[in-house]
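Now read the record:
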Amino acid sequence: MSSSDWVALGGLIVSCFAFAVSLVAYRLQQRTARSDSEKELSDQIAAIQSQLSELAPGPSGSESSEADTIAALAKTSNVNAAVQTALLRAGSLIESAGLDPDWYQNLVLATAAVWIGDPVTAGPYAQNAVTLARQPADRGWSAEAGSIAQMMSLRVRAMFYFNRGWPDDVQAARDDFREARQIVQRSQQGLGPYITVGQLVELYLREADFELRAGHWAEVEALTAEACREWLPVKAPAVRQFIGTMIASFAGSQRLIPVSKLLTSDFVAAWEQFQRELRIAPGSAVPQGAVPQAAAPAPAAHADLSMLHPIRTPSGSAGPDR
């Protein structure tokens, strides 16, 4: 080969090497950009959770003043605006960076969108959460973690259906609530009897809350009756007090249906007896002569964020029953 041929060959080799280096650099840059985008998405999820956690129940009924009510409404409005902004940022980031949110991120985004009344945004996230939760074995989850993930995802999707209100949505929501309860019942051995009863009662009351808003009185009465039935066998005083208060609070917090139609006679009799026992029990934290008030709030339109614990995955992994 002539000297000019060697020079040309050398130039070609250098060009190929430079192209390979630039390709590797481009891929590294893409990976770094994706990592930054994933971190930003995690930050947006954390911001949404922080905003929603500020919506803790405040004083109600006779304990609340007009100023308290106005302040609560202003706070809710501000939080809703902040959550809407965070949702828009998260959605834009997911689309522009081609991110694939995991189960937990989909669940939080769906919960937030349901809370602010944005069914268009909530729908895809809720559906993704249910789909991902149905694959626990593929993601290294334990049986108990998988069951909780499925229950929570179905609950959020049910709330999405109730809020959207299309013709078939009410039945779809009821089906999701029913399946969520069945999952809890099947998982009783892993969850334990008290958590199982607490979850079942919470699901009955949350569904009853939406049926109440829709004016389905018979369904509300049937659901609260089931909640009362679940409570009756509970023996542990602290658990009995907590779950019973939740049921009594729901029945007493609304004015559309008489409490006598929501609480069964068996529940009322057992609840009153239990309160008498608390008042006279030695060392009871309840002052003698004072009946504990139902302080727990009625089910809200959003999922309880205290239950939203991330289920870590291996890196690289993708009415009453009728």
About this structure: Residues 21-51+71-99 form one domain. Residues 10 and 146 are 59 Å apart (CA to CA). Confidence is low (pLDDT under 50) at residues 6-10, 16-30, 58-63, 282-322. The first helix runs from residue 3 to 53.
